[in-house]
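Fold Annotation — chain and its backbone
Encoding — discrete vocabulary of local shapes
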Amino acid sequence: MTDTADIQYPSILRRFAIVIYDYLLIIAVCITYGVIYIIVGKFVFNMVSDRPSGLFYQIGWLATVIGFYSYFWMKGGATTGMRAWHVKITDLNGNAPSLAKCLIRLFISPIGWLLFFTALFDKNKQTLHDRLSQTQLRLMPKEKKKTKK
């Protein structure tokens, strides 16, 4: 386990900013999924409806959202919103979270939102989904801009 004395954690305001940024991006990803679903359904499977619906659509949508977050968390340690706010997700040892930890975090997150403000009272600014998935958000140092000589 990493020594928590030298780890900086994001504030709750920064967490909200990340959520808003990522929600805008995930909305665009979901719209793209819906358009692809309609096009493939119409031209490949001769579906009559122009409106995505049904169990197959919902499973695909859920897989898209899970895939989006899991891929970015496991590969780069951060979604686009997290990168913009210099935050990275790690397990408690400082490594990229496993798929299992990503899934736990994703499925607990809707419940965790109800207790989001618990981060205000936690010394490591952890929320319910941080604790139960054994992950943490860390502030990353800002990269210094290269100056031209």
Q: What stands out?
A: The chain has one domain: 4-139.
